[in-house]
Every structure is written in C-alpha cells, then in structure tokens.
Amino acid sequence: MELFWFIPTYGDGRYIGTNIGARATTPAYFRQMAMAADDLGYSGVLLPTGRSCEDAWVTASTLIPLTRKLKFLVAVRPGLMSPTLAARMAAAFDRSSEGRLLVNVVAGGDREELEADGLFLDHDSRYELTDEFMTIWRSVLQQESVSFEGKHLRVREATNFYEAKQKPYPPVFFGGSSPAAMNVAAKHTDVYLTWGEPLEQVAEKLQEMRSRAEKEGRSVRFGIRLHIIVRETTEQAWAAAHELIRHLDDDTIAKATKIYARMDSHGQRRMTELHQGDRSKLEISPNLWAGIGLVRGGAGTALVGDPDTVAMRMKEYEALGIDTFILSGYPHLEEAYRVAELLFPKLPLQAAPQERRDYQGEIIAYQHKPELKST
C-alpha cells in the first residue's frame, strides 16, 4: 500500500459543519502539515481544488523546499486552464521537486461554481473537453509538436521546451463515476480514484474501469479517498465519530443537501445516496461511516474502529485491487500523527516510514542514563 495524507486548504477544526473548534488554516499551518506528513512517512499529500480552496499549485510549490520525499497530488482543471500552460506548470513543478509531482485531473461537478469561473458546459461536454485537454497535455509533455483541432480545444504547433523529470510525464490520477468520466479515465489515467463506498459497489466500479481500460489497450491502477477515525479501542473510535458531528444541526444538513442536489456529479450523487441526509443511517457497511458526507462535498465516508479493524477493512479494499489510500481526519495535523502511530504498524506499506526507529515516550528521570565515556 501507499498511504497519502490531505492538506485542508479550505479549513480545518475539531468538529464539522460548525465554527466551533475551527482553526485558522494559514500558510504556516500547511507547512506544518507537509513537514509532518513527510517526516511520518506518508508517500504524498493531496491538495484539494475549488473556489473555496487556496490555489493548489501555488500552495504546493511553497512546500517543495520544506520536504524531502513527499509527493504532491495537484489538480489540473480542464476548461479553467489551457493544456499547454498546464503542461509547462507540470514540467516546472516536476523539475523543481526532483520528480515529486502527481497530477489530479478534475473536471468539476458543480455547475454554479464552474460558471462563476467562466466555464459554461454541461456534464458530458466537460468530459469531451477533458479528453481533448489530456490528449494535448500528454503529447506536449512527451516533447511532441502538437497540432490539434477538436470540438472544444485547438492548438497549432504546440511544444514544451522544458521536460518534466518523470517520463513520459508525471503520473495521472483521475476520479469520476459517470460513463463519460470513466471513458476518459480509460484513455488517460494511470491511477483511477474512487471515493469510499461499500466494498461491493467499489468492486463493481473497479471491474467496469478495468473493462473500459482493456478496450483502450491499457491497464490502470486504483486508489481510494477515505477519512479515517482510528482509536485504541472500537468504543473510543465510535465516540470520536459521534463527537465530530456533535454540533451539527439539521438546518446545516438541509442546506448541504440542497447544494448537493444542484450538482451534476455522479460521484456526489452516489455519496449522498449512501446516507440520504439521515443521521440514523450513517454506518452504511461494517465500520464505514457516512457522517462526514452530511455536510462535506466529495469524499464523505470514514473507516471507524480500532487499528486492527481499520487495517482489516483497508486490506479488504486492497484485495479488490486498490493500492493507493488517500486519507484524512479532523483535525488534520493531529490525526496525521495518530494514524501513523496506530495504523502504520498494522499495514503492508510499500515503503517503510522515513527514519523509522524504536520510539520511546518521555524519559523518566534517573531511569534512562546515557553511557558516559571516561577520558
């Protein structure tokens, strides 16, 4: 497994759906998050995208010199940026980071937000544009001279003067549950991402993705985006889950549900259907809890339990073919440590955490004496 963490560039806190227990998410906080993830041994971090987030490219670029091995999963936004500009940005970032860029293709799912950014296309048309965007982006980053005329995009003799460090280009991640999205992913992605749905739903989606990729003469890897609530005991974990939504009122849930309803994202619809805005139906399969999705768009489910149980559930997803887990928890800085300390030892990680050693607690006076050399 590869384990990633999450940098919450839109806000963080101890409770969701409320300002109670909220904290300022500042550049200094993002630096703390990145340095902690790097030191703890996470493979990388995801930076979210959207108008409520700090810009992912600018933020990630400030974190390069503060980290050693940490990879950065950063979004390109077809329709909001040109494919040739996006290629130059990717090449520059990849060179600057010594090959630590991963690219997250995000077509968007909220028409109101997209129209505010100047993109007026329906769902399937956005994926047509994304297909054209990725065709140009991938070719230009392979140092080809590209002339392309499509329905949405056109370039003439486009070239990239500075190569990316990773060949043929930085790895591409792509999520999307609709047929249109999966068709584009089959052609262009290296890692297909799903949100945390029950095992049978994920198995069905992955098999569909494999079939579509095979028709394109390709194979893809798989990843999953999940929240984690892990504690020393199962009882403590479920208490923490319930505490997370303690200040969440029905009015806030209703407002969030209304926003989800206006979206044309198939993935968001699947997330909403898991809980239907009902607090009494939040454990949607063993240890998979949909409480976060009551008021958080996108990934809305968490694995809840003691370390052995959560590790077992993750291994069940791994058995379906998932090797990349993009995790998060509230508040994100403290939970990055908790997950590493409790869960890492239970998992078959692809790479051992950096500088892993025999940790000891606070030294008790007179019980730990350094060896003194006589001179």
TrEMBL record:
Gene3D superfamilies: Luciferase-like domain. Its EC number is 1.14.14.5. It catalyses: an alkanesulfonate + FMNH2 + O2 = an aldehyde + FMN + sulfite + H2O + 2 H(+). One of its GO terms (molecular function) is alkanesulfonate monooxygenase activity. It holds the Pfam family Bac_luciferase. Residues 1-323 form the Luciferase-like domain. Keywords: Flavoprotein, FMN, Monooxygenase, Oxidoreductase. It comes from the Bacteria. PANTHER family: ALKANESULFONATE MONOOXYGENASE, ALKANESULFONATE MONOOXYGENASE-RELATED. Belongs to the SsuD family. NCBIfam families: alk_sulf_monoox, PRK00719.1. Catalyzes the desulfonation of aliphatic sulfonates. This is Alkanesulfonate monooxygenase. It comes from Paenibacillus eucommiae. The lineage of its organism: Bacteria, Bacillati, Bacillota, Bacilli, Bacillales. The gene is ssuD.
